[in-house]
């Protein structure tokens, strides 16, 4: 009994000492964690990319197995072929969206600039016709200009511009390097995903044998929640974008293909995505015709109501299983933490936690 008490006291003393070190050296520890996290960002992004691509990879592998059933040599190339097809599919989708959006976006910007140039010309004419302003500029003489100060300002501004250009170039290079590392790491994860899964399983069984079943249950629940959310949101976004394009084409509204693509992309964002898509469409069409902008606003409201009440429940169904009030809470919290990406991440996170708690409550009540 004395040995147990001593062991308990020793463990409490060690925990207290570790807490003291953590509090006393917190700035150093926080800086170390920040450095490690910054270095691991490309790997974390690679994990996210691998998880999303893996959803397509499974479908391609399933189809490849059916096509080459009974061919042992062909089965050896199943993983490389499926990986190439999965990444190629994503690249094609991005290229098609850019091909649709960019040309019409350029023409829209040209139109907006043309309309604003008329306003600018009217403003210049008004200044030229103003007698008070002409009197001020008439009394102004070039000898009053302080050329030394202007020279210093130009030199400072030029140096600041060079610094801004260098900073922008550095940021672009950093983003490109992070993207390349993340993509290569995601490919590595997809190639060796079974091996990595077996290694993680062995570690859990070795060090946490009592918690292995519960840990795997939690992991499967989170995996089901995120995979269902991603697949469901993508299907619903595609249907909403196609319906928006068809409806705008029937109503003869301008920029139907571009606004349809933008609506599909913004529909991936829960709750506020529909509002963002509608706002972009209204602003763009309003520059051409306010009446058509009003027609589009009525059309997009009706389309979103149809999607919320019919399409979304049928496509996504109850796969997420999260009540609307908790979806709203997840969006607010996720947006406050990390913006749009936070919104997209916290909704399935809340859904998984909600499912775990609900199942545990049911189990305890029936026990």
Overall shape: it is globular
- Category by helix and strand content: mainly alpha
- Quickly count the helices: 12
What fraction of residues sit in β-strands?
under 5%
Query: What's the N-to-C terminus distance?
Result: 34 Å
Number of β-strand runs? 0
Structure commentary:
Helix 2 (26-67) packs across helix 4 and helix 4 (78-128) packs across helix 9. This protein has 367 residues and is mainly alpha-helical. It starts with a helix and ends with a helix. The chain has helices at residues 2-24, 26-67, 72-75, 78-128, 131-139, 147-191, 193-207, 212-250, 256-266, 272-286, 290-315, 324-366. The radius of gyration is 29 Å and the shape is globular. The protein contains 12 helices and no strands.
What structural keywords apply?
367 residues; AI-2E-like; globular; 12 helices; mainly alpha; 0% strand
């Amino acid at each position: 009994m004395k040995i147990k008490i001593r062991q308990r006291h020793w463990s409490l003393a060690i925990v207290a000492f570790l807490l003291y070190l953590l509090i006393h050296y917190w700035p150093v520890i926080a800086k170390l964690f920040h450095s490690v996290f910054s270095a691991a960002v490309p790997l974390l992004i690679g994990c996210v990319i691998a998880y999303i691509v893996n959803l397509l990879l499974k479908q391609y592998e399933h189809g490849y197995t059916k096509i080459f059933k009974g061919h042992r040599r062909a089965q050896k190339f199943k993983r490389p072929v499926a990986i190439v097809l999965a990444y190629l599919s994503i690249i094609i989708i991005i290229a098609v969206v850019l091909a649709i959006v960019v040309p019409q976006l350029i023409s829209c910007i040209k139109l907006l600039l043309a309309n604003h140039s008329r306003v600018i010309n009217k403003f210049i004419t008004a200044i030229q016709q103003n007698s008070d302003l002409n009197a001020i500029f008439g009394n102004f003489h070039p000898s009053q200009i302080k050329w030394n100060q202007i020279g210093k300002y130009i030199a400072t501004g030029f140096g600041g511009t060079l610094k801004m250009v260098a900073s922008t170039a550095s940021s672009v290079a950093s983003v490109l390097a992070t993207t390349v590392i993340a993509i290569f790491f995601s490919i590595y994860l997809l190639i060796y995903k079974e091996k990595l899964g077996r290694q993680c399983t062995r570690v859990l069984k070795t060090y946490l044998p009592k918690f292995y079943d519960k840990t795997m249950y939690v992991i499967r629940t989170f995996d089901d929640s995120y995979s269902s959310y991603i697949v469901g949101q993508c299907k619903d976004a595609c249907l909403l974008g196609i319906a928006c394009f068809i409806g705008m084409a029937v109503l003869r509204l301008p920029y139907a293909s571009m606004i349809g693509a933008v609506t599909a992309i913004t529909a991936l964002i829960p709750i506020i995505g529909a509002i963002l898509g509608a706002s972009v469409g209204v602003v763009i069409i309003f520059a051409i015709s306010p009446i058509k902008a009003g027609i589009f606003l009525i059309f997009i409201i009706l389309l979103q109501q149809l999607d919320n009440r019919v399409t979304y429940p049928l496509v996504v169904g109850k796969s997420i299983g999260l009540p609307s009030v908790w979806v709203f809470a997840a969006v607010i919290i996720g947006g406050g933490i990390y913006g749009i990406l936070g919104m997209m991440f916290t909704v399935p996170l809340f859904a998984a936690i909600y499912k775990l708690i609900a199942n545990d409550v049911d189990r305890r009540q029936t026990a």
